Amino acid sequence: MNTSKSYIRNRYRQLRKQLSAEEIENFSMAIANNVLLLDIWTHRYFHLFLPIVRHNEVNTEYILHILAGKDKETIISKSDFTTREMDHFLLTDATKISVNDYGIPEPVDGILISPEKIDVVFVPLLAYDKAGNRIGYGKGFYDRFLAKCRPETVKIGISFFEPEDSCGEILDSDIRLDYCVTPSKIYKF
Question: Which band of pLDDT confidence, cut at 50, 70 and 90, is reported for residue 2?
Answer without folding.
Answer: low
